[in-house]
Amino acid sequence: MGFLNRLDDPFNAEGIILGKVEDLLNWGRARSDWYLSFGLACCAIEFMAVNASHFDLMRFGCIPRPSPRQADFIIISGTVTMKMAERIITLYEQMAEPKYVLSMGSCANSGGPYWEHGYHVLKGIDRVIPVDVYVPGCPPKPEAFLDGIVKLQKKINQQAIFKKRAKLAEEEKIIVND
Question: What is the pTM of this model?
Answer without folding.
Answer: 0.77
